[in-house]
Amino acid sequence: MTSEGDLRLQRLSHPPVGHFEGKGVWVTGASQGLGEALAKYFAAQGARLVISARREGELERVKASCVGKWAPQDITVLPFDLTSSHEVLRSAVETAWEALGGIDYVINNAGEHIQMRPRTAASNTT
After folding, report:
1. R_g of the chain, CA atoms, integer Å
2. Which residues, other chains included, contact 84 with Cβ-Cβ below 8 Å and sequence gap of 6+?
3. Which Gene3D superfamilies does the entry link to (predicted)?
4. Rounded distance between C-alpha atoms, residue 28 and residue 18, angstroms
5. Widest Cα–Cα separation across the chain
6. Could you tell me if 107 and 24 are in contact, meaning their C-beta atoms sit under 8 angstroms apart?
7. pLDDT by residue (tens digit) across 24-40?
8. What are residue 120's DSSP bridge partners?
9. Is residue 71 part of a domain?
10. C-alpha–C-alpha distance, residues 22 and 84, integer Å
């Protein structure tokens, strides 16, 4: 079973022009990398956006760099940490819902960066 919000429906093709026009999209992890790129993509497609991450300054930078029908003026910056308490998360959802007048898509891109150390020849021996 799928729904309009199920991105699996998009498969490998691009959605039709105007598909995201006026849709409410909440992107977490939007302060850099893939989340930032997704925020810019959805803004350019005419979506109404809420962008979230822990670093408000970086979110403001992303907001200012977005271009679209609703961007940057109507993008809502909603800084919070996904590891916060249940009450904080509930409040964030309510804020995003109110800002967008309903949420059509959530792109849950937030994650934790883990620095990987390269393996050395010495660590490969038994």
Report:
1. 17
2. 92
3. NAD(P)-binding Rossmann-like Domain
4. 22
5. 60
6. no
7. 999 999 999 999 999 99
8. none
9. yes
10. 30
Q: Is the residue at 39 inside a domain?
A: yes
pTM tops 0.90, yes or no: no
Bridge partners for 49 per DSSP: 25
Closest by Cα among 106, 34, 30 to 62: 30
101 domain-assigned:
yes
In the numeric block, the tokens 């691009």 are attached to 14
- What is the extent of the structural domain holding 76? 19-111
- 72 alpha-carbon distance from chain centroid: 15
pLDDT in tens, 39-48: 999 999 999 9
And the tokens for 85? 């308490």
- The CATH number of the domain holding residue 68 is 3.40.50.720
Phi, psi dihedral angles at 81 (to 5 degrees): -110, 125
